[in-house]
Automatic annotation (TrEMBL):
This is Uncharacterized protein. Keywords: ATP-binding, Membrane, Nucleotide-binding, Transmembrane, Transmembrane helix, Transport. One of its GO terms (molecular function) is ABC-type transporter activity. Residues 409-629 form the ABC transporter domain. GO terms for cellular component: membrane. It is a multi-pass membrane protein. The lineage of its organism: Eukaryota, Metazoa, Ecdysozoa, Arthropoda, Hexapoda. Residues 104-365, 773-1022 form the ABC transmembrane type-1 domain. Pfam families: ABC_membrane, ABC_tran. It comes from Phaedon cochleariae (Mustard beetle).
Length: 1123
């Protein structure tokens, strides 16, 4: 019905060799094209057979049905988790084993090898020793290659597994949705199903990649504790316990506070967005009464209340981010101090081995483990919600006698209901073949329930009924899906030109087609042009009539059209074209009842009377009284057809230029759930704005506090300087301790004193920790500090690093909150000043997007991404400085690394924005299809199109899967390439350090510092690039908000204080119009021309006009709404 989606490009991974798969080389052509020409939907590869929605849905559905049968047999609740385990547990555990090997064994081997390498530097520097050093260095580099290769491939594999679970569950949810009973559908809002598919199921993409850490971390913790214990004995337990206590309970407690604040913030954000929706909906009234200042105060007050919780939330997130930065350094400090105070001596091998182990633990305990806990908790809630949905009541098989010979309808003592209350009570009705039966009654009498019963939607409680032949159904609420007008009429039926033209003519659509931009190929529905209620009703009727059936159920198809159109539809379509067919027509149009073969009067779910029109007229029942209550539909229809018609204005906000088709405003129908719908125009904005580098500066300027911004920038540098100084001070300390405990053959240390310009040498047996003098080791003289001074200064540096890191986080989030507050205030102020033309041309959903999605990104996502990116980049800068100071030859590696990373980052940003756009643009049709299906579920079932719609859903899922597969492949590809570039730097640092130490140019402590710091870069580069890219993507929200702060304002409406108005004014309501011209914008032709009239006080004026005449615009000049 929507047309098949064809992806012609074969996925190159099918034909890739082992090396290409290992290095993701098969993506090179795709990346080249994206960087050179950009990407669009035609560049997507065909979905792999193992990832097809239909296949995955079939497998999971089979296991779910087994679980349902097991639950029924054992009289227990069915478990969705059990069905998922039966389907995916083996694959999940295989990747878990890979994760274990990489995370526990291989990664923990790197510090062990580094420890052994540093110990070699304390040995005899002969040829054998040098060879062993180079072998250990090579092993360290090889282990790094293995770590990054296993890491990115296991992440890629788990991401694919999570994707398949999401696809299978999405298919299962959709299939269930098409089977739900009307009772269950009534209790299930469209937003709930969309929320399941867009939010709940997305948890599986996230949780699968980190869930294994929950069972792996005890093994990793035990192994790392053992290795640290080998180095520092009892001090290891102090250090590990310090890290565990600070990371797990501390983060859990802060996480609970964040969750509470996030919940409160969400409620307040929803309240603000709902209020914004009301402001946009009633903007004409607001401008008419000049209430802008009042509503600005109201919105700003709500916003202020929201920002208070946002600020508290931001500060706590700042604490968590700071914890992640300094926790490993603080833990190393606690361990070293404990070890030294117990009377031990630190060495380079001990210190830098522990530093690497604590860095590994930090990633696990502070980053991965909290994420796993959070995602697991959220996923369990999602699984519960999914299970509750999947066990909802299904539509039962229709229990009626199907008689194909008589093609009529017969009800015998039928009682049926939606709920416990009976909607149809003991009803008996016989409609012979070929009869036109008109059903009338008050609103809520049960007329539509009769049709729902015949369609099998209403639950039968007692009695029987028979239906002869196929049914075609036209719903009371016109339903259109997003496609062409022709597809909406055909609805999967073969196209017959002669039959189609006949249907178009009898449904009075021919003149409308002539006015549509592309005639019957015009797109309608959610993504298409807006139609009037009458046009929608006639297309809806044409769909039912085009389908060749024996019985036609027409639920009030005439109420949305005006009188002459209604007469045409009844005479040409219902009466003439369908003559000989069994027809049930629900109507409020009294004039057509006398032409029906049978009239049924329904009241309170019962048949009050039935017979011909004349028979009912002669009865004691005055059924025409019902039309005094129900006849409002008719008047509404005439108003709808007349007042809806207007001009589709041409502007940068409009979709089409002027034409004759009607335009219907849906401002009042926008709900808060609509604000997340992003159209293609917005997406194009996102892609285009990525090149605007001024957004970041504008964001900082929005804080409107230059001193605070400058102080924040300085504090970020200072905090990183203290963190880097910690590492360097520890290296210096280990070097001093090595000198302090160097001894001669007698076990004594030779010291030097300077007096009278002469040098004296003597030996001493004092405690090495108390030495504070010059000492000669070999032919070199070194100055020593007492150990306690190292402890004091080390403590000062750690405390300074902790304090400045926290202060910079608070300062940073304070700047972000100020920017967010000021941007919102400026945007809302500019919006209220905008002319009415803006509101009538810009979709309300887009305006709400600015105040919901974009502002939400500025409030929460952008600050966290910026803080993380800045922290990562500063850490990398600190690492580079430390390594360069330790080993100047690494500057060569830095130049090489910088060139490679610069190129990879350029590709990542340029190609990433297109892939992000493709993923978003292919996701929207899936959710739109679900929404469309829910709205038209009765029509879909009545037309036996459920299987076809399920096939379309699977196709749309495959379409999105193709883009999502590229997304996770692209992420893994650039992550691997970035880390491999980092390994080049590690190799240069390691081998050059070994060489320099071998020729006695570099101290052992500096070797340890250089190598251990260079290993930190492993993984750091890719995270820095990813978060930098995320910042750039999120800055598009800033750009769009800033765009709204510069909206062209309307002319001033405030009265000058110098204006003198009589105290008696106004004393009469007299309006005089002279030579009035009205147009929508300065560039448009006038819609009202040379209007002249006078309305005297007390007069009542009615404005009338034919379709396409702007009679409803004549009151606009009295509002500030036109030029």
């Amino acid at each position: 019905m929507n047309g098949e989606i064809k992806m012609k490009l074969v996925n190159p991974v099918k034909n890739a060799n082992f090396l290409s798969k290992l290095l993701f080389g098969w993506t090179i052509d795709f990346i080249k094209k994206g960087a050179r020409e950009g990407l669009n939907n035609s560049d997507l590869y065909d979905t792999l057979d193992s990832d097809k929605s239909r296949y995955l849905g079939d497998v999971l559905e089979k296991n779910w049905e087994k679980e349902l049968n097991r639950a029924i047999t054992k009289n227990i609740e069915p478990s969705l988790m059990k069905a998922l385990s039966d389907t995916y547990l083996i694959d999940f555990m295989i990747w878990g084993l890979v994760y274990f090997v990489q995370f526990v064994i291989v990664r923990s081997s790197q510090p062990v090898v580094l420890s052994y390498l540093l110990l070699l530097f304390n040995g005899v520097n002969d040829q054998e020793n040098r060879t062993e050093k180079y072998l250990m260095s090579t092993l360290l580099v090889v282990l790094s290659v293995i770590v990054v290769s296993m890491y990115h491939h296991h992440c890629f594999g788990l991401a694919k597994l999570g994707m398949r679970m999401r696809i299978a569950l999405s298919s299962l949810v959709y299939r269930k949705m098409t089977k739900l009973s009307q009772k269950a559908l009534t209790a299930t809002a469209a937003g709930q199903v969309v929320n399941l598919l867009s939010n709940d199921l997305n948890r599986f993409d996230q949780v699968v990649t980190v869930l294994h850490i929950l069972w792996i971390i005890p093994f990793q913790l035990a192994l790392i504790t053992y290795f640290i214990w080998r180095e520092v004995q009892i001090a290891s337990f102090v250090g590990v316990m310090f890290m565990v206590i600070c990371s797990l309970p501390g983060q859990c407690y802060l996480g609970k506070i964040i969750g509470h604040l996030r919940y409160r913030t969400a409620l307040k954000s929803d309240s603000r967005v709902k209020l914004m929706n009301e402001v946009i909906t009633g903007i004409q009234v607001i401008k008419m009464y000049a209430w802008e200042k009042f509503f600005e105060k109201v919105i700003n007050a709500v916003r202020y209340d929201e920002v208070r919780d946002l600020t508290s939330n931001s500060y706590i997130r700042g604490v968590l981010i700071s914890f992640n930065i300094f926790l490993d350094k603080a833990t190393l400090f606690v361990t070293i101090i404990t070890y030294v105070l117990l009377g031990n001596v630190i060495t380079a091998s001990k210190v830098f081995t522990m530093a690497m182990f604590y860095n590994v633990l930090r990633v696990s305990l502070c980053l991965t483990y909290p994420l796993a806990i959070r995602y697991a908790a959220e996923t369990l809630i999602s699984i519960k919600r999914l299970r509750e949905f999947l066990i909802l009541e299904e539509k039962q098989a229709t229990e009626y006698i199907h008689e194909e010979n008589h093609h009529g309808i017969c009800l015998s003592n039928v009682t049926a209901s939606w709920t416990e209350h009976d909607d149809i009570k003991n009803m008996s009705l016989d409609i012979p073949h070929g009869y036109m039966c008109a059903i009338v009654g008050e609103v809520g009498a049960g007329k539509s329930s009769i049709l729902q019963l015949l369609l099998g939607e209403l639950q039968l409680k007692s009695g029987t009924f028979s239906v002869g032949g196929d049914i075609s159904y036209a719903s009371q609420e016109p339903w259109l899906f997003s496609s062409t007008v022709r597809n909406n009429i055909l609805f999967g039926q073969p196209f017959d030109r002669k039959w189609y033209d006949r249907i178009v003519e009898i449904c009075a659509l021919k003149s409308d087609f002539n006015q549509f931009p592309q005639r019957d190929q015009t797109i309608v529905g959610e993504r298409g042009v807006s139609l009037s209620g009458g046009q929608r009703a006639r297309i809806n009727l044409a769909r039912a009539i085009y389908r060749k059936a024996d019985i036609y159920l027409l639920d009030d198809p005439l109420s949305a059209v005006d009188t002459h159109v209604s007469r045409h539809l009844f005479e040409e379509c219902i009466e003439k074209h369908l003559r000989g067919k069994t027809r049930i027509l629900i109507t409020h149009q009294l004039q057509y009842l006398q032409r029906a073969d049978l009239v049924v009067v329904v009241q309170d779910g019962q048949i009050l009377a039935q017979g011909t029109y004349d028979e009912l007229q002669n009865s004691d029942i005055d059924f025409t009284e019902m039309f005094l209550v129900s006849g409002y539909d008719r008047g509404k229809a005439e108003e709808d057809e007349t007042n809806i018609a207007g001009h589709a204005r041409s502007s940068k906000y409009g979709r089409f230029s002027r034409s004759g088709f009607s335009r219907l405003s849906h401002l009042s129908d926008i709900s808060c759930s609509d604000v997340n719908v992003t159209d293609n125009e917005i997406t194009k904005e996102e892609v285009a704005v990525l090149n605007n580098k001024s957004a970041f500066l504008e964001y900082l300027k929005a804080a409107n506090n230059k001193c605070l911004v400058a102080a924040m920038i300085v504090m970020m540098v200072v905090a990183q300087a203290f963190c880097s100084a910690n590492d360097f001070w520890v290296a210096f300390w280990t070097q001093q301790e090595h000198l302090r405990h160097s001894s001669d053959e007698k076990g004594h240390i030779e010291f030097v004193t300077l007096s009278n310009n002469t040098t004296e040498y003597y030996t001493s047996t004092v405690s090495p920790s108390e030495l504070n003098d010059l000492v000669r080791v070999g032919n070199s003289i070194h100055y020593l500090l007492k150990t306690k001074y190292f402890i004091y200064f080390y403590t000062t540096l750690v405390a300074a690093a902790v304090v400045t890191t926290l202060v910079r986080s608070f300062g940073f989030f304070k700047v972000c909150m100020l920017s967010s507050i000021n941007l919102h205030s400026s945007m809302f102020h500019a919006l209220l000043k905008a002319p009415m033309y803006f509101f009538e041309t810009a979709p309300s959903g887009r305006i709400l997007n600015r105040f919901s999605k974009d502002l939400g990104a500025i409030d929460e996502m952008l600050p966290e991404a910026m803080m993380t990116a800045a922290s990562v980049l500063l850490i990398m800068l600190g690492v580079i400085v430390n390594v360069a100071i330790s080993n100047q030859y690494t500057l060569i590696g830095l130049v090489i690394l910088g060139m490679i990373i610069s190129k990879i980052m350029s590709l990542y940003l340029s190609v990433g924005k297109y892939i992000k756009h493709l993923e978003g643009s292919t996701k929207s049709p899936v959710l739109s299809h679900v929404n469309t299906t829910l709205k038209g579920i009765t029509t879909i079932r009545a037309s036996r199109a459920t299987a076809e719609y399920t096939r379309q859903f699977d196709e749309l899922q495959d379409y999105h899967t193709s883009a999502w597969y590229l997304t996770i492949t692209f992420t893994s590809t650039f992550g691997l390439w970035m880390d491999l570039a980092g390994i080049i730097f590690i190799a240069i640092t390691t081998f050059s350090s070994v060489f320099l130490q071998s020729v006695n140019v570099m101290e052992t402590s500096l070797v340890g510092l250089a190598i251990s710091q260079s290993l930190i870069i492993l993984g750091m580069c890719q995270h820095g690039v990813r978060f930098t890219a995320e910042v750039i993507y999120q800055l598009t929200s800033v750009e769009r908000v800033i765009e709204y702060t510069t909206l062209e304002p309307e002319e001033t409406f405030e009265i000058s204080e110098k204006t003198i108005v009589s105290h008696s004014w106004p004393n009469e309501g007299r309006i005089e119009i002279k030579n009035l011209y009205l147009k929508y914008s300065e560039n448009d032709p006038p819609v009202l021309k040379n209007l002249n009239f006078t309305i005297q006080p007390g007069q009542k004026i009615g404005i009338v006009g034919i379709v396409s005449v702007s009679s409803n615009k004549r009151h606009h000049p009295h509002r500030r709404s036109r030029y």
